[in-house]
Queue: 3 jobs
Job 1
Amino acid sequence: EVKLVESGGGLVQPGRSLKLSCAASGFSFNDYWMGWVRQAPGKGLEWIGEINQDSSTINYTPSLKDKFTISRDNAQNTLYLQMSKLGSEDTAIYYCARARKTQIPFDYWGQGVMVTVSS
Amino acid sequence: DIQMTQSPASLSASLGETVTIECRASEDIYNGLAWYQQKPGKSPQLLIYNANSLHTGVPSRFSGSGSGTQYSLKINSLQSEDVASYFCQQYYNYPTFGSGTKLEIK
């Protein structure tokens, strides 16, 4: 069974940093592009970015590329999202997801982790 | 960014009815269009990719069509388990999503 389990969320103060993790199991992690999508409370979805199998290619949505860093550890089957200079606009559920290659939709998503930015 | 305009924002229909949700892209996305279903409190699930290809395990009452800038998702014979929000997504360029359609049973 494919499982993607996000962790590391919670309450964080404005201006601080936070690192999310996504533990993958039930499939060959090395064979997939992985990515992050977020959803503000009661709002739509925003694609953050993606990383290829060997971390040689990382794509970000332009408006977020200076704030977020995506990385992965294939030995640990884990995907990461480093977030910096957080503001209230970053309050959202963060989902990790997988895709066979770039420029195709994510075919499986985790259940998400909530990040709340507030003082 | 490619903007995706989705309509309607909400929809109420009876069991057994057919419903259609539309998405318009701000430029040609060459069938790089997916549809997702998101049930309350759950993560999105892929329904359709490449505008009209059904993802594995998705019931055949779901179908997608369109080309260029105009795309649609049709749900035939609406069932109670179809109550959800539906989002379109273009992936021709940096992926962007429509604002969603909340589907309820009348």
Job 2
Amino acid sequence: QQQVKQSPQSLIVQKGGISIINCAYENTAFDYFPWYQQFPGKGPALLIAIRPDVSEKKEGRFTISFNKSAKQFSLHIMDSQPGDSATYFCAASTYNFNKFYFGSGTKLNVKP
Amino acid sequence: GAVVSQHPSWVICKSGTSVKIECRSLDFQATTMFWYRQFPKQSLMLMATSNEGSKATYEQGVEKDKFLINHASLTLSTLTVTSAHPEDSSFYICSARDGSTQETQYFGPGTRLLVL
């Protein structure tokens, strides 16, 4: 059973537009939700992360929105750039961070 | 930021041989390291979790005798694929958790293994 469900599988956005990727989870014990960015042939890199005690976290053009009651969280990329084209993974972990559950990934293509 | 290296970055080997992949945390002490496997266009699949000085914890379905993990120091973990077969060809990625900031996992650049 997939612990974290991610959508869409792929996304095409025009340069300057907003990219939105969504994730949902069932386990209420999760309390750390990171997003990772992965370029082809490279390992994932931590982009931004949130704890459930806040509803939003912003770092530059990247924002996580978190809805605890709906058990959903999303990544918003403002002013999307071609350099943002990559695969994005959401993940979730419990308080001890002993195991991370990853979403299935979203391949983002930002067209110039 | 914290850096995790992997060596080699890619390896081609003959079926039946063993391959060792090293994962190093370069500027922090990693109390825990994770090994993942990633198939093309798919998500990361956790293979095992290793804590320094203790035996690795393998995920269900992962053969511990096939994928030997050693975490001998706070900066080095190794994954040995024993008697490799073509179906072991994959992208192997390690990550390390900084002991001082428990929640953050830093990923290595990955190792692409091709077994002929």
Job 3
Amino acid sequence: DGGITQSPKYLFRKEGQNVTLSCEQNLNHDAMYWYRQDPGQGLRLIYYSQIVNDFQKGDIAEGYSVSREKKESFPLTVTSAQKNPTAFYLCASSIGIDSTTYEQYFGPGTRLTVT
Amino acid sequence: QKEVEQNSGPLSVPEGAIASLNCTYSDRGSQSFFWYRQYSGKSPELIMSIYSNGDKEDGRFTAQLNKASQYVSLLIRDSQPSDSATYLCAVNGAGGFKTIFGAGTRLFVKA
């Protein structure tokens, strides 16, 4: 089955620790995205990548880092510099920049709790 | 700041009725418009895409786009309790790579 996987589903960390969230897709999509969703709020873009070995900051990149070494994988690291990291993190992908559409498909999400 | 605005709701409709969800956007150059459904605790699921003015129908769902008024809507006919969810409107601007999401409208369908 084609799709996007995120792991783990739930993650608990102590304040001051870095944590890496996994995102893998087998849709052969060029573009991948990370969003954060807080209760009762819309999605906010953290980082996006249009192609392997390239990525761009979104609207709330501070305290986060990413890598895109493989087309299929776009891991997100939440660093200790992120002031309020507890949130629902969503990874998405779309066909890419040479498509006339930008339909994004989401993974199941990772719910991160930092105490 | 490019924005996508939705009424947060909740919108409550009886089973079998038509649910009408509305969205306005600020970037006049926007070209791609999407509706996502998000059940509580789950990730968003794409249900409709629309790119040109007018109506687009898919089963019980109809998306309507009016670029002159910068308005996009989603109609759900014969609403079912399983349609109860938050519906997110999303818009891509000119040059279209970044998608801006609205905060969503919560829909309750009463049995």
